[in-house]
Amino acid sequence: GNFDANGLFYFLGAAAGPPGGEAVAQGARWVNPAMSGRVAASFSHGIAFSGTAAMGLSRTATRLRGKLGSGSTFAVDLGEGAEFVADYYTLRHGGHKDESPLTNWELQGSKDGQSWDTLRAHTNDKTLHGEYAMSSWPVDASAGKAYRMFRVLDKSPGRTQLSVGGFELYGSLRRLGALFHHPARS
Questions:
Q1: What average pLDDT score do residues 2-7 get?
Q2: Is the pTM above the cut of 0.90?
């Protein structure tokens, strides 16, 4: 956990080769998979501070906040033909300790972007209350399903600025069919 070399976004950023046959070579250079177009990252209300949504997959502490909104999300789309079974995830707060740290949120997964399943719910969790604080959590064992899309949903009351300075998933990548279509950039 905690942004090591075993996560999905590390793999997608360091691996080379055709879809389904990728491998990470020793000494491989990591390129943010949202910046290279291998996945699509987005904030539901847009970016308020520092860069692009792709920076939410950064390997280092990144100051990144979405615009003020209610029920804000940070989402990642793996693209048509890819699904992932998550069993663990890591999240980093995207700012200083007083900049909207998450307290109530959910990790959710979806196959279509319309219907979302909650994979892990956090209530009054102050783990991310600190400057660029990060932690890893297991996904609820009952989940075990494969998803194309994942999101962090801010469940805080009222309007907030979702701060995500790093996100990583751990588990198993599945390919559906022979082709892997990269998601559309937004």
A1: 89
A2: no
